[in-house]
Amino acid sequence: MPRLTVEDLKRIKEEQKAKRALREGAYRVKVTVHMGTCGLAAGARDILNYIMDELNRAGVTDVVVTTSGCAGLCSREPMITVEMLNTPPVKYCDLNEEKTRRITREHIIGGKVVEDLAFVAGCETSY
Amino acid sequence: MDRYRVNLMLCGGTGCIASGSLKVRDALLDELKKRGLQDEITVTLTGCNGFCAEGPIMIVHPDEIFYEKLKPDDIPYLVEEHFIKGRPVQKFMYKEPEKKIAVPTMNEIPFFKYQVLRALRNKGLIDPESIEDYIARDGYMAAAKALLEMTPEQIIKEVKDSGLRGRGGAGFPTGLKWELCARVQADQKYILCNGDEGDPGAFMDRSIMEADPHVVLEGMIIGAKAIGANKGYIYVRAEYPLAVRRLQIAIDQAKEYGLLGENILNSGFSLDIEIYQGAGAFVCGEETALMRSIEGKRGMPIPRPPFPVVKGLWGKPTVLNNVETYANIPQIILNGADWFRSLGTEKSTGTKVFALTGAVNNVGLIEVPMGIPLRTIIYEIGGGIKKGRKFKAVQLGGPSGGCIPEHLLDTPVTYEDIVKTGAIVGSGGMVVMDDSNCMVNVARFFLEFTTDESCGKCPPCRIGTKVMLDKLIDITEGRGRDGDIELLEDLAKDIIKTSLCGLGQTAPNPVLTTIRYFRDEYESHIYERWCKAGVCRALCTFYIDEDACTGCTVCARNCPVKAITGEKKKPHRIDQTVCIKCRTCYEKCKFGAVKVGPADMFKEEETVEV
User: Which CATH number fits the domain B351-434, given the four candidates 3.40.50.720, 3.30.720.120, 3.40.50.300, 3.10.20.600?
Assistant: First the structure.
């Protein structure tokens, strides 16, 4: 990678936004596994494996699975955020294998929010 | 307070900001002013509505009309039609989607509702190991602006005007620190980041370094340009392996992209940053000790002045800021000082990150506007006290801070108001304690910590804290004597006055605040030999209130030494000769039948009988 200029920064910004954006015909769902120290200690690594396992079994390719840091509510880890095209991101917390596999099948693959497990929808104020 | 005819609640959630709600706000303010409506109609930024995909979203009160996908260009028409002619505009209105999600939104859950993310704006949103993810969220745009469009004086002015104060604890104005260092002429200057977070219960800086490492680098680049440094160190304790790893990845990526190193973004400015891993000594969070540690010497403070901005690392002018302070800098450069001041109070601007832990229901990392009352943090964001117990105190500022009692819970969280209580805002550790805590024991815990962590260089701290600790141990073990409280207060004053560095100067704070607000507990320990919380074993007796006991047998089944006897549905008894005062029965009893009495309660009875 050569030395960046401001134009490169702007280009990377737009490219990356486009790449990560959910849209018709590309990624339909984005799953974020929160992997701060708190998440990892609570078993986030296993949670990621369960999701990958379910996705592989189903042969789904329009889902992007990514990792991120602590989402703030450390006492409710492990936690994931599921964002589907045209809906607010939904957070699930206190996850275990059973819940994670169910969420993967019903929400991530099936497209229907698992209402009895969902914790919150949306994102925080940030201005 | 002004009364407005109409309230425009514009969403300021991350999703809506990304889809342009700030530009919509500016357009609204412009148009309202143009039409002379600014005194009738107010615009408020709110938390996330949960309909991020439909953003930017705006709710009009009192009509309760829901507009979606607003663009700045729509605003003149919208204002004219709706707010002048009184005709709500159908085409901007929200159409009911086919399926609604029956999940609460962040506005409905207090934990999220009261938070505003600035330093933590990328938390949980980006992959910390991807520089592209960071760039996609405006990453390094502030550095580009600072390096290419601003002079050091302009950067310093913006930071000074923002009112940003050091988030590491002392609250020194960041812009002023930078200005003092910029003024000094030197062939070499250093910019340092303090990631030596050591307060028990604090994890703000770790979370920022783990979740958003590039923001720390970007803040340092801007600071380096302001003071004229071309070498930087991030001092992180080795107990934070994930933070160290992610920071190192971030540094490597930034170097590869030419965002660190020679001639950054072709600006002619160069900066190299390295990580220095600390061995976990608490005193190394003190600036002069931290610099000695980087030099490879034993981490001990030296007297100031000269201050590090004049003579710091290797004798060169040095600026040291905390992780969270740097995390605020890029947003100040991008959005300006006025934007930063729009939250917080006159003297404590912006937001503060807290690590909320202890006896609250929601434990976590939160960011709130300065000036928010402690009560809101504990009861709304924290969700109140666990297991329905009673609040006793909140500990702010770790071993340098103090315990704030119930009657001061309406204190706004600002540097100046918290200091009045005897505590400090500190780096942001907030440990909530319920009525099962003994405040004398809490003071002893913190003093044990500082006595252990005292570097030993100056006698007031080395010997003074030890003497205070010995007194506290005496009190908690039943050897307290008349005059001990006064002696502690006296010693504390001397230690504060005569210690070399911040560690000693603040170490007595936990003792002083607990004496100030919970003197009765010290007195009952000393004069009644009674630790009413049942924590200090030498000073309590556990017994069962026979009227309250239902005979559920839980206590007897959980007692590890079989000291409790009794038949089902009949009052139980504790055999005092067997009881080891482990508190298990006290904690397990659902009916509050296990009571704590003074150490001598049964001995006295025996004496009477004889």
Answer: 3.10.20.600
CB–CB contact B47 A13 (8 Å) = no
The ranges of chain B annotated as CATH 3.30.70.20 are 540-609
Domains of chain A: 25-121 (3.40.30.10)
Q: What is the Cα B390 distance to its own chain's centre?
A: 22
In this structure, whether the domain defined by B131-338 belongs to CATH 3.30.9.10 is answered with no
Residue B610 pLDDT class (50, 70, 90 cuts): very low
CA dihedral B303, B304, B307, B311 (to 10 degrees): -30
Cite the residue boundaries of each domain of chain B with CATH code 3.40.50.11540.
131-338
A57, B467, B515, B530 from B473: Cα distances, Å:
61, 10, 15, 15
B127 contacts A126? CB cut-off 8 A: no
Q: Tell me the per-residue pLDDT of B432-483, one tens digit each, with 9 for 90 and over.
A: 999 999 999 999 999 999 999 999 999 999 999 999 999 999 999 999 999 9
pLDDT tens, B178-211? 999 999 999 999 999 999 998 888 889 999 999 9
Q: Which regions of chain B carry the CATH code 3.40.30.10?
A: 6-107
**Number of Cβ atoms within 10 Å of the Cβ of B267:** 17
A107 inside 8 A of chain B by CB: no
Closest CB from B45, B111, B206 relative to A125: B45
Is B365 touching A (CB cutoff 8 A)? yes
B133 CB near a chain A CB, below 8 Å?
A: yes
User: What is the sign of the dihedral through the CA atoms of A38, A41, A46 and A49?
Assistant: positive
Q: Which helix (H) or strand (E) covers residue B584, if one does?
A: helix B584-588
Chain B residue with the nearest C-alpha to that of A41 = B242
DSSP 3-state of B456: coil
CB atoms within 10 A of CB B571: 15
Residue A95, min C-alpha distance to chain B (Å)? 16
- How near does any CA of chain B get to the CA of A125, in Å? 4
Task: Give the dihedral sign, CA B367/B373/B374/B376.
Answer: negative
Which homologous superfamily is B6-107 in?
Answer: Glutaredoxin (3.40.30.10)
CATH, range B439-527: 1.20.1440.230
Any A CB within 8 A of B334 CB: no
Distance of alpha carbon B496 from alpha carbon B596, whole angstroms:
36
Could you give the residue range(s) of every CATH 1.20.1440.230 domain in chain B? 439-527
| Interchain CB distance below 8 Å, A124 and B46 | no
In chain B, which segments carry CATH 3.10.20.600?
Answer: 351-434
Residue-averaged pLDDT of chain A: 89
Residue A5 forms contact with B (CB below 8 Å): yes
Residues B525-567 pLDDT 10s: 999 999 999 999 999 999 999 999 999 999 999 999 999 999 9
| ipTM value for the complex | 0.85
Q: What is the pLDDT of residue B1?
A: 42
Average pLDDT (B278-290) is 93
Contact call for B124 and A2, based on CB within 8 A:
no
Nearest residue on chain A to B113, alpha-carbon basis: A124
Q: Is A2 on the interface with B (CB under 8 A)?
A: yes
**Chain A residues with beta carbon closer than 8 angstroms to that of B43:** none
| CATH architecture observed for domain B540-609 | 2-Layer Sandwich (3.30)
* pLDDT tens track for B351-381: 999 999 999 999 889 999 999 999 999 999 9
